[in-house]
Amino acid sequence: MKKFMFICFVIVLVMGILSIVGLEGTQPQDVGDPEAKELAPCNESKENCVSSQATTEYHAMKTWEVESQISSLSGLTKIISEDSQAKVIVQNDNYIYVQYKSKFFKFVDDVEFLLTPKGIIEFRAAARLGQKDLKVNRKRIESLKKKFENSIEKDLK
What we know:
Layout: H1 2-21, E1 49-51, E2 64-65, H2 74-81, E3 86-91, E4 95-101, E5 108-115, E6 120-127, H3 136-156
Antiparallel strand pairs: 1-6, 2-6, 3-4, 4-5, 5-6
């Protein structure tokens, strides 16, 4: 019983330290370029990334094709900025690079959006650490898309 209690104590202690220190990882070198014409590819050996430019089943998601021609990503930047876990690192009219930090363990996910000349929004969202992200990035992209589409509908009214 004492051994079990000691193991529990150590686990709780380690989790507490990790939640304070965080598990940020380092920023990938292939993200954050506002002049990029393509986004970084997903690492196909890991299930921690989704992208509109990916071709594998787990990683691929459809691009955002907005009905109205938008000239910039400023509306999306506004939506992202309302999330306390998000920090916009780089932005211009056609590109956004955001870092999302989880509340408890401080994991960082890198998310990019690219507006093409045809009015299509390409994106990539990836966890820096780990083999799997439990579909956190897929859910984040789906949620952002819904909020963005709703904001466009409101603007058209």
